[in-house]
## 1
Amino acid sequence: MTGAALLGRLGWQSLAFVRAWQDPSLNTLIAAGAAALVVIGAVAVVALITLRGQWRRLWREWFTSLDHKKIGIMYVALSFVMLARALAEAVLMRLQQATAINAPGVVDAEHFAQLFSTHGTIMIFFMAMPFLTGLINYVLPLQIGARDVSFPLLNAISLWLTAAAAGLMMASLVVGRFSTGGWSGYPPFTETGFSPGVGPDYWIWAVTLGSIGSTLTGLNFATTIYKKRCTGMTVMRMPLFVWTSLCTSILMIFSMPALTVATALLALDRYLGFHFFTNALGGNMMNYANLFWLFGHPEVYVLILPAFGIYSEVVSTFSTKELYGYASLAIATIAIAVLSFTVWVHHFFTMGQSANINAVFGIATMAIGVPTGVKIYNWIWTMFRGEVRFTVPLLYALAFMMTFVLGGLTGIILAFPPLDYLVHNTLFLVAHFHNMLIPGLLYGLLAGYHYWFPKAFGFRLDERWGRVSFACWVVGFYLAFMPLYVLGAAGMARRSSEVLEPAFRPWLLVAGAGALVLAAALAALFVQLWVSVRHRRANVVPAGDPWDGRALEWSVSAPPPEYNFAVLPHVAGRDPFHDAKRKGTAYAEPVRYAPIEMPRNSAVGPILGALGGWAAFALVWQIWWLAAATVIGMIATVIARSFVRDVERTIPAETVARIERDWHETLARSAPTTRDFETTAINRGLAQVLA
Amino acid sequence: MNRAARSLTTLVALAPLGGCAALKLGVMNAAGPVAQAQWDLYTTVAIVLIFVGGPVLVLVPIIAWHYRRANTESAFRPDWNFAWPLELLIWIPPTAIVVGLGIVLWQSAHRLDPYRAIALSRSPVIVQAVALDWKWLFIYPDAHIATINRLPVPAGHPVRIELTSGTVMQSLLVPQLAGQVYAMAGMRTQLNFAASRPGVYRGENTQYNGEGFARQKFDVVALPPADYQRWVRRMQHQARPFDAAAYAALFERATIPAPVMYSAVPDGLFGRIVDRSRLPAAQAQR
């Protein structure tokens, strides 16, 4: 067997360390340093788990778990790791542009291109998607009064496919080089003729694995919402977060396959010499642009809608008031979801199509602004005549409303084709979509993280560090991105590794400082987690309702029992738990407890993830024997699983009764808290209710 | 330390100045009818947008602060959740604004369609632009001359650029003169503009296409018409003839240090490059 047959395109040169050894420069050393971080990080985690002897427990209680709550937490943990990497890359890019003004800067052009490609790919597919999927996973079944999602095993498979894809992104730091084609991977640049290396292959397979995982997730969530709502929860009684999750799931189902097809066709071009998107022999990259953005634009709303749901929950809860205009919020959500499929051409107004086409898509783009604006006003009217409590989640909601509207305005500018011609592909565009996604996605997910963390872990996050982090995210955002609007209006092209105009310097320096503040924001978030874990005993909220919540997730203990609800709830209104607390029917103990069937743990998720990850790695490096073996392994795993009949286990009634009685004793011991003390140690998760 | 503080102070003091310098390179400093119309449209839209975003920017802090929990004076109606007047207020005016802006958008998209010829009494100059790695080839088919990375045009004359790419997709932007259009291999797109006054305007590729991307800039040099004619004649006599070696060099992936001029450019060079991209790689080499 020759080396090529055994290892494909892999060689010593593929290792970032070897490249740095042979050609030590700041550029290769930065690459090797990043690779070392990945390796050291992985080794440290493995060593720590081994030293503490936690492997068995992790495997039994987490990796093989089909519990939607644990899967949700693992998704969010994954997204934080990826956020740290992608933010570090952002800081490096800002430092490069701030220093490379008629000077070499810190990294070379090719490295810089890898940075913007991985930054975008990770932030969208491996930070935002896992984060929102994790939150929906955790909260959705609890809010609709269900014990799990419709397909718990599929849920685990989605998680592990996503994790495998994220692992592939990490591997690309150590072995080989990533794509330089940006997060959108436009051919023909990403075809073998122009990018012969493994970079675009890493991108293709990471995105393909991730998009398959997301399609399955969308199917799972939509089915769960359709089929598993508890008695009495009609569609028009669902919490707004469930509404936005439903619309997001539908968007995932219809948009993700477009991406999977686009990447698969590109893979056919690259691996088997097809000509879908090549210059020659009838290929046409315009088809790729259409396919990609037919996914890409709905994807924007896949990302933003769940955050809109979170803001609806947060604004209502922390304004001590019913949500204003429920029906109009639901209609606006549906309108956004439908319209999101009618605007994709605005990503390439500059492709030379007729003015009629551009005008139609431009107007459709502006039309999305109407339901989006309606939502913002609905949140304002929710605060109107309420009692607003400025907790960290509400601060994020306020910062979102003030900041997102600015992004909406620049979005309308971009919707005008003649104005888009001027600022398309410039930093103005970069500023615009960060202006939408940082407030419209990141702030929302962080608000959700602060809001639901006590539910998931049983203790509150530290309020002071939360505010520090919040302030840094907001100040950092304005510093980092407002200058980019100016630079874009001045015509500075995005993705520039060098700057030839000294006039851009002051703005690039401000943006660079902003990036550092954003890095401080993430650091503060990690410090907050550390401090909160250390002081967890002071901040426990075992009764489960730290914020005087309104929906069903607050009606159970914190953390909730594995089965969520000892008895499946019946609801008769939009804010069932809020109403029950006022009527005095909350926390009622059932007459008797019944045994509960829950899905049995399964190793299929991690096995498919591991095999899928290795299959992708083998395809990237063209190690055909490994690709064949792993793909056969995946098929065999699925077939073997289909013969497993014993997939459920029963929690006996006595166990349920014991867990529930413990919780009711805790409830009886807890003193009700007024809202004035909700961010203090007095708050044990039992809200004082004024009738 | 002191020096650092001083330079920081200087920097902060000079920042607005530097900012103005940056904006001078953009559409704010429009130098032709297309960019001027785009800037006018920009300001019109921006003024409308003040009324779109303004209410949110004003209401959010006022309402959040007024209805803060600590304010015991404010009304508290926890079950109030709907009012038709408010509802109509948040749906109808925004819809009306979008309809109004939609009419403006429709008209401006047609008026400023990059394919639309500029209505000026003088005769148009036709230039064929080829996006290459990492440079721009500009062919003047009527004069049989070509340039790389420099685009002289006569001020006051309409310019019609036909674009294609000899490599991956790129995008040609001259912020002070006109917006951008993609250049794609095997295909032709078009961009019309004019420079109202003589001057040097920065042009660039804005679509990432590899290592040399950041350096793929060129100057649009708008000359007084008489000077432009002189420049064309001089090129026709003095510039290096465009030969097979020059043709082959176009497709090398490289930046070039300084602009290059060619004379004796054969007829149909642009069409040949358009067709070349459609051929399989082996044939395209010839």
## 2
Amino acid sequence: MAEKAPLREVRVVGRVLAVNERMAEENRRRFTARGIFVVNLMSSPGSGKTSLLQKTLQALAERVSAAVIVGDVATTHDAERLAVTGVPVVQVNTDAFGGDCHLAAHVIEKAAEHLDLGAVELLFVENVGNLVCPAEFDIGEDVRVVVLSVTEGEDKPVKYPAMFRTCHAAILNKIDLLPHLDYDKARALAFIRQVHPGMPVFETSARTGEGLEAWVGWLLEGLERKRASGRR
Amino acid sequence: MHEMGLALEILEIARASIPADLPSARVARVNLRVGKLAAVVPESLRFCFEIAARETPLAGAELAIEEIPVSARCRACGERWTVTEPVFLCRACGGGAVEILSGRELDIVSIEVFDGSEGENG
């Protein structure tokens, strides 16, 4: 038998988030089988994500049947604001799942049960307002989009590089406010470019509708690509 | 911010890795690799793990965290370097086609268990 408590090392080699990653792949398979294009929308609180989504849904209304899963630590205010667009909305309050900082794959799976997926072409997931944790959790999306607004610091991209590295597009929102601010837009764009060179950036105002067309066009292209790959 | 959730996952994986021939073994250490780009604060993770491990075979186990630097490779010119600031432009050619080679890890590497634990015939 052993001497005084010798140690035995047991190799494990596993991803800590393996369970989430497995469930995310499961979600991705399920959505892809139906040709649903899934967009994970992330930002810090107060970037205008919900307003932007409202306007985006209105712009898509005639062309695409969309649905939304909206995550929040608490309250159903965002879901109520989105419901006026007539699009199916599922609200998730993350505190009920013991994690208040991000949406995890199993939460999306549960939420999707409340949607008629056969009738959905484009699924938006409005993640919890947070630029740190959601970057770490795959939910089975096709694209990740980060929204930042001109009322935040220009250096957000370099403060949250993991978020900006893992996204496929960025939206710079509230540009209607630029004349009233000292915001250095060129500096913000340069920071985005240095963290994620080549990532598309859409400059929008959810309030005036400026710039929405290019963003909506990008979404439609993604949806078309997803459909095409499904047909193959 | 989700360190408690991560601590619980680590606890789960580590428990399941305790060898079958040492069912009552106590775990001395859990070896972890955490990339600098992973959204994890090592100090919070250690703190959460300590609490989560109470009254389990991992009670008192040390969470040894090896921090992995962010390394990158330029797809255009092949340059490899360690990224120390949030700038993902090639330091040699200035190009933007940069591939991240490491820095996103959040892996359990191994556990170290007391062999012949608690003096009993394990």
